[in-house]
Write a structure and sequence with these properties.
The complex is a heterodimer of chains A (275) and B (224). Chain A is mainly alpha-helical. Chain A has one domain. Chain A contains 10 helices and no strands. By secondary structure, chain B is of the alpha/beta class. In chain B, strands 6-7-8-3-9-10 form a 6-stranded mixed sheet, sandwiched between helices. The longest helix of chain B is centred in the C-terminal third of the chain and has 15 residues. Classes of the chains: A mainly alpha (275), B alpha/beta (224). Chains A and B meet through helix 1 and helix 5 of A and strand 6 and helix 2 of B.
Chain lengths: 275, 224
C-alpha cells in the first residue's frame, strides 16, 4: 500500500512533470531518414513496390550494428543513432531518484514510514520510465515513417529486410523478430537502467551515467554477454547471426539484473543513514 | 501515551564517534530540550530517534517496538531536522498535501490548521521557491505538527523566525504538549529552550552529560 502511494508520487514527479525529456525521441527522425533513403535505393534498384511499413522502419532504427571485427584499415565507428537512443533513457533515469532522495528523502521516508517501499517505488518508476521511453520511440518512429510514406502496419516487408540485412531474414519468423526487436532490448535496457539507478546512490548520478555510457560503447566494440548493450542490437542476436548472442540468455541476464538490483537496493536502503 | 527508550546507543560516521552509549527514556506530555555545542551530537541523536540513522550498537525503542527491527520509523512522528526541504515548484499547502497523502490519515482541514497555526496562509498561491527563509522554516514546522503526531522532533525550530512568530510557535508547542504528546527540541537559544522545556539534556561529544528539570513547568502556559 505504501509502495503504491509512493509510486503515485514518483509517477507524478518523475514521469508526468518530466515528460518534456521524452521529446528526445525525436532523434529517431535521423534513423527514419536513413531508412527512407535505403528504401528509395532498393525501390530504384530492385523494383520493389512497397514503400515499407512503420514496423520496417522501427526494425531498421533498432538494428544497431553487426559484429565489429578489428580492421587496421577501418576505424571503429559507433552506431551513433542506436547509441543516442540507448543513452536517452539512461539520461532520463540518471538524476531523478538520487535527487529525490537527497532533497526530499527525510520528509518522504518519514511520511511513508517504510524504507523498502521507497526503494520498490523507485524500481517500478524506473521500469515504467523505460517502457514509456520505448513506446515513445516507437510512436515517434511511426509518425516520421508515415511522413515518409510508410504504411501504418505492424507487418514487415520481407523483401526489404532481406535486401538490407541479407537472407538470414528468410529463416526468422515474425514472433522471433519481435522478440529480438522489442522484448529483449526493452528487458535488457530495463536491467541496465536499474543497475545505473542503484549505482547513482552508491557513487553518483554523473559517474553512473558515464559508466553506462562506457558499457554501451564497449558493447558496440565487443560482442559479449557481459557487455549487455549487445543484446539491445537485434542484428547481434543468434536468431539472426550464428555468431550472435542467444536472446534467451539476454532475458536471463535482464532478469538477473532486475532481481539483483531489487534485493541489493532493499538491503542498501534498509542500512543507509538518511542524513 | 508515547515512550522513547534509548539504550546504550552508539554511532560512528567515517571513523568519528558521534553518539557514545546514549541512554535515555522520554515520555509523552513533556517537552525535552537538547542543548550542546555545534557538533555535539544533538542532531544525530534526533535522527536516530526519527529512524533516519542506523545505530552501530544499542537500540531505540518506540512504544515497545525497536527501530530497524520491528519498525523502520516511529508510527506517529513529525520532524523538522536542519533545513526544511520541500518541492520548490509547489505551494506550501500542496507540499504538505503530498506528504499527508503518504502518511495517509491527515485531512486537508488538518493541513490548513497546521499552516494557520504557524502563521502561514493555506490559500497562499506562492510556490515554495518564492518563500522567505522564515516562511520555509514555518512550513517545516507545519509539516512536523500536522495531524498532531504522538512524537514531534524539532531541530532549531525558531531559527530565522521573527519575535512574533517565535511566540506563536511556542504557544503551539505548549498546546500540543498538553495533549499528551512527546516533543523534543534542540535550540541554541538558552532562554527559549528553558522556557519551552520540561527537561533539558546537555550533550557533549556524543554523550549525555547533564539532565536538568525545569521547575516552573507543570502549569506552564503561554503568555503572549
Amino acid at each position: 500500500m505504501t509502495t503504491l502511494k509512493l509510486l503515485k508520487r514518483d509517477i507524478k514527479l518523475g514521469i508526468i512533470e518530466r515528460l518534456l525529456l521524452y521529446l528526445m525521441v525525436i532523434f529517431t527522425f535521423f534513423s527514419v531518414k536513413d531508412c527512407s533513403r535505403a528504401l528509395a535505393d532498393i525501390q530504384a534498384h530492385y523494383a520493389m513496390q512497397s514503400s515499407g511499413t512503420i514496423m520496417d522502419y522501427y526494425v531498421y532504427c533498432m538494428a544497431g550494428m553487426g559484429f565489429y571485427q578489428f580492421d587496421p584499415t577501418k576505424g571503429f565507428l559507433i552506431p551513433y543513432l542506436w547509441f543516442i537512443t540507448q543513452m536517452g533513457i539512461s539520461y532520463i533515469i540518471a538524476y531523478y531518484a538520487e535527487k529525490d532522495f537527497a532533497e526530499n528523502g527525510v520528509n518522504v521516508m518519514v511520511a511513508g514510514r517504510n524504507r523498502s517501499a521507497w526503494w520498490f517505488s523507485k524500481v517500478i518508476w524506473c521500469v515504467l520510465s523505460v517502457l514509456i521511453y520505448f513506446v515513445a520511440t516507437f510512436a515517434a518512429c511511426s509518425v516520421f515513417a508515415m511522413f515518409y510514406g510508410a504504411k501504418p502496419s505492424i507487418g514487415v516487408t520481407d523483401e526489404f529486410l532481406k535486401i538490407v540485412y541479407g537472407y538470414n531474414m528468410t529463416y526468422l519468423p515474425y514472433k522471433d523478430l519481435m522478440l529480438i526487436v522489442f522484448v529483449v532490448p526493452i528487458a535488457v535496457t530495463t536491467g541496465i537502467c536499474l543497475v545505473q539507478m542503484l549505482m547513482s546512490f552508491i557513487i553518483s548520478p554523473v559517474t553512473s551515467f558515464a559508466i553506462t555510457c562506457a558499457v554501451y560503447i564497449l558493447s558496440a566494440y565487443y560482442t559479449a554477454w557481459f557487455l549487455p548493450g549487445s543484446f539491445t542490437m537485434w542484428v547481434r542476436s543468434s536468431y539472426f547471426d550464428v555468431r550472435g548472442l542467444n536472446p534467451l540468455s539476454g532475458l536471463l541476464i535482464a532478469a538477473f539484473m532486475v532481481v539483483a538490483v531489487v534485493v541489493l537496493g532493499k538491503s542498501y536502503f534498509e542500512r543507509k543513514d538518511v542524513i | 501515551m508515547s515512550e522513547i527508550k534509548i539504550e546504550s546507543l552508539s554511532k560512528s560516521i567515517k571513523g568519528t564517534l558521534i553518539l557514545d552509549k546514549v541512554s535515555l527514556v522520554l515520555n509523552s506530555g513533556n517537552i525535552y530540550g537538547l542543548r550542546g555545542k555545534n557538533g555535539s551530537g544533538k542532531t544525530m541523536l534526533m535522527r536516530a530517534m526519527s529512524g533516519l540513522l542506523i545505530p552501530d550498537t544499542g537500540s531505540v525503542i518506540i512504544n515497545g517496538k525497536t527501530l530497524h527491527k520491528d519498525i523502520s520509523f516511529p508510527e506517529s512522528i513529525g520532524i523538522l531536522i536542519e533545513n526544511p526541504s520541500f518541492l520548490p515548484q509547489y505551494t506550501g499547502f500542496k507540499n504538505l498535501k503530498l506528504l499527508a497523502g503518504l502518511t495517509g490519515n491527515i485531512s486537508d482541514d488538518e493541513i490548513r490548521t497546521a499552516l494557520e497555526r504557524v502563521g502561514l496562509d493555506p490559500e497562499d498561491k506562492r510556490i515554495y521557491r518564492k518563500y522567505s527563509l522564515g516562511m520555509k522554516q514555518k512550513l517545516g514546522i507545519a509539516n512536523a505538527i500536522m495531524g498532531e503526531p504522538d512524537i514531534i522532533i524539532l531541530d532549531e525550530p525558531i531559527n530565522a523566525l521573527d519575535e512574533e512568530s517565535v511566540k506563536k510557535i511556542k504557544k503551539v508547542l505548549l498546546e500540543i504538549r498538553d495533549k499528551d504528546k512527546l516533543i523534543i527540541i534542540a535550540c541554541h537559544d538558552r532562554e527559549e529552550l528553558e522556557y519551552l522545556s520540561d527537561i533539558i539534556y546537555e550533550i557533549k561529544d556524543g554523550s549525555i552529560v547533564d539532565r536538568k528539570e525545569i521547575s516552573n513547568d507543570n502549569t506552564k502556559t503561554f503568555e503572549a
